[in-house]
Input
Amino acid sequence: MWSQRFWRRFPLHRPMDSRRAHSTPRLVSSAILASGLLLAALFSGRTEPVAIAVPILLGVILSSLLSEPPKPSVSVEVDVDRCLEGDQVPVTIEVASASRVHELDVALVLPYGFTAIGPRSFRVKLTPGSSERLPVTLRAERWGLHQVGGVVVRAWSAGRLVVREQSFGSTRPIKVFPRFERIVAGLLPPEPRVFSGEYVSHRSGPGIEFASVREFRIGDEVRNVNWKVSSRRAAIYVNTFHPERNSDVVLFLDTFGDHGGPSSPGSLELAVRGAAGVALHHLQRRDRVGVVSFGGVLRWLPVSMARPHVYRLLDVLLDAQVKFSYAWKDIQVLPSKTLPPGALVVAFSPLVDKRAVAALSDLQARGFSLVIIDTLPADRIAPSPGSEGELAHRVWKLQREAVRDGFAERGVPVVAWSEEDFLDSVLAVMPRLPRIGRGTPA
Amino acid sequence: MIRRLIRTVPSTGRAGATLVLAVSLGALSLRLETSTPSIWIWVLGLVLSAASLTGAPVQTAAIACFLAAYLVALLSSDVGLDAGAPLVGVLVYLLGESLQHDGSTPELISPVAARGRVWSLIAVSGAGFTLASLVLVLATGAGMSGPLAVAAGGVVAVALIGSVLWVTKPLLAPDHPAGQDR
Output
């Protein structure tokens, strides 16, 4: 009874008061047994109980004489400061002590988003001036900014009569980047912009892709003259081409909630992975990419294609998290540079929160080319047990289908994506986005 | 570095040691007097030991049962002075070590720490057996019995308890200040 209650209060990874030593259940039980034996000797008038109590008491005395207050010092070395999901992170704990420590339990506090490969708690013995280097290997399981390096030590006296525990909380931040979804084909933005890129514009201008033939006008280059057509006509005709232009892509993350089943990644995790993959794909094609994290906490990054922009994008994605809020938000709070005209908006949303759905509808009404990737397939959420749970689940599914159909009627493609599918294959089946010209009603 | 770290003692080792110690204590008790109460108390101690090995918080109760079985057998017998008492004391001490459950056990224990633990058990067992035998020899040589033996036991008890309190007091004092954190 003593030991279980004691250790339930002081598990290895939750530190006890480090200012004093704590007597262990063994010390208490030794004292109780020895006292009982001595009382039995007194009442029975026999010497044997005293002889039986002698080893127990001797253990306590010798253990106490050989013990001294421990003075451990701990340092943690982490070799990496950034990695990808699934990468291994080696951590080395170095413990030393200025006094003798008979038994020292050392445990690395496991940060959220990491799992340990192999042992992460050790028992060592330290002599004055000696040190031990203990290797721990962690695996980064989830993207984000994590703090690694918390250590808890528990120093036992000789005979384990007294225990002291101390935590060392100096940690190092490690950025774990999401596992990128590899995208090959990607999305074709309907409205290329003015800078040079990889998309063939529907307009005419300098380029490689042949467009048409027209009559010569002042200013046309002589090298574009189509001599075959000109020789058959009485006038000079020139070739026109479609220029290659880039595009603006804005990633819209719905961070009002993180929905999903117990054994599958949540909708926010899928959204971050997908957004990272789409961002890298379009940045490699010299598009300008921005991101909006729309939820309880608003974060945005204007579009850019500069080389350092990759790291800024990933930092915004790593900071994406759910913050519960009742406040109603719409896209009017976003700066105008965040949503440049004609940008392709790729939204990752579970389509659960009305605020996110209203914001997406607003984006479509304002003339943006919008694509919605549904990160919460309906079969991910299991109905509650009972007929009422089944009915509520069916109603919920109908409501979501109505939302998706509403977007589809307005020309907004909505595709569902789960972790079993590749995002590239999901985007490949997406219908071509309609071109929205100036003055064309949405 | 890796070669210096070994796995913890398997739980089967603890169970085996507990069984051997429990059976030995039972044999020492039953050789004095095979009275029914002594046997049943010993069996109860065996059951509680098995429960303690699986995590139940009954270590002290289990050891108390073994001691009670021995004392009942001792008081029921006609033996004037049992020479096996020091051995009983050492076995009870070792049984307490085998039933000790210190909460969360580390995943790896260094061989130096493991050897240190074993040597401390051997040292306390040997010294305890010797000192307990000395107590019996002194009691026999002095011819003490009855109230005289009780008085001698009381003196020894006061001396031992006082020693324990004297040596453990500095250990339980608070540190000034808390350990460094780097």
